[in-house]
Design goal:
Oligomer: single chain
CATH topology: Rossmann fold
Strand content: 15-25%
Structural class: alpha/beta
Length: about 230
């Protein structure tokens, strides 16, 4: 049997390890729209805005305090959905900064393809199974259009609900389509799920920051409550 000091050191080592041995308060999928309606400049706005949102002091502190595991998915049409950055533990501020840098530098995979929201929801569900030990599982979808091919989002929500996944969204409004309402009716899911509206791509950085603050920091205040 380990002595008290050796047991403490053993547990301290384990606490720094990724995966099931580490206490993970949040498994978070960041899903970024790269469909044909998103031009090159708009893609850069999304990636750089998302990177800066992760570096936000409130967001970064929340991620580290929960030892969150975060991954990035680029998504477009059928068969064009990919997890481009692997699950990464937000072990400290440096880990958050490195992950933010990786997002800002992530090359775009596709252009000029359709919008398959249900497909990215399904891919995210499969990815979240890898971090099922996390206390909360969240899918964060950003998009500028309704789904126009592939499996309907409503057909995937049942499996996400069964897995305990919360789905939130950023609706990037660029035309007369009420995308915010569409996300409310077809995509978001779970207790406290919400949609944040960005008034065009220029407004996206401010809204994704606000969304991540709400998605992560609100839960930190709940940790330890009876």
């Amino acid at each position: 049997m380990l002595s008290g000091m050796w047991r403490f050191l053993f547990l301290l080592v384990l606490s720094g390890l990724p995966g099931p041995l580490a206490a993970c308060g949040l498994g978070l999928v960041l899903a970024v729209d790269v469909s044909g309606s998103v031009d090159r400049q708009e893609y850069r706005i999304q990636m750089e805005g998302l990177a800066e949102a992760l570096r936000d002091g409130i967001v970064a502190e929340a991620l580290v305090s929960q030892q969150a595991q975060v991954t990035l998915i680029q998504w477009s049409g059928i068969s064009r959905q990919r997890q481009t950055l692997p699950w990464t533990v937000m072990a400290d501020q440096q880990a958050v900064d490195r992950f933010a840098d990786a997002i800002a530098g992530d090359d775009r995979l596709w252009r000029n393809f359709s919008t398959a929201v249900g497909e990215v929801m399904d891919l995210a569900l499969q990815a979240l199974k890898e971090v099922a030990h996390c206390q909360r599982l969240v899918l964060d979808i950003s998009g500028d259009g309704i789904s126009n091919e592939g499996v309907p989002p409503l057909a995937v929500r049942g499996a996400l609900a069964q897995a305990g996944v919360v789905v939130n969204a950023v609706a990037i409004e660029t035309d007369e389509t009420d995308l915010t309402a569409w996300f409310f009716e077809n995509v978001i899911l779970g207790e406290g799920a919400f949609v944040v509206t960005a008034d065009g791509f220029e407004d996206y950085p401010a809204q994704i920051r606000r969304k991540l603050q709400r998605e992560t920091a609100k839960q930190v205040s709940m940790l330890g409550n009876p």
